[in-house]
Amino acid sequence: MNRRWQAAFLALVAAQAMHSAEEYATRLYDRFAPARFVTGLISDDRRVGFIVFNVALLGFGLWCWLGPVRRGGRSAAALAWFWVALESANGILHIGWAVSSGGYRPGLATAPLLLAAAFVLGRRLARVPSAERLVA
User: 105: phi > 0 → left, psi -120 to 50 → alpha, else beta; which?
Assistant: First the structure.
């Protein structure tokens, strides 16, 4: 497996960690209805629900990197493309929310970082020969 796309994958997970920290600091869980709903499902204290959700998300990202991605497992490319799609959507939605409301919204400052990291990973993945992506 290509170490460059593996490093790009880890960079995308790190970008999500920075994004989560910004969202926490700016209380996304109180300001965005879908976040209020999801965090409320996890805990009556939405702040705690937000922490649990984001720790689980980042834990999943680290598991993907430590397991299938670093080892070049069969699921590595599919997991990496999933993260490209997830973080691209995340970045686009944050920017769209801010544009539609006419100002800063939680997560906007790091949304471009998510998009850039997802773009880099996607480009690197697209350059990996398909036979190499399927090596177990």
Answer: beta
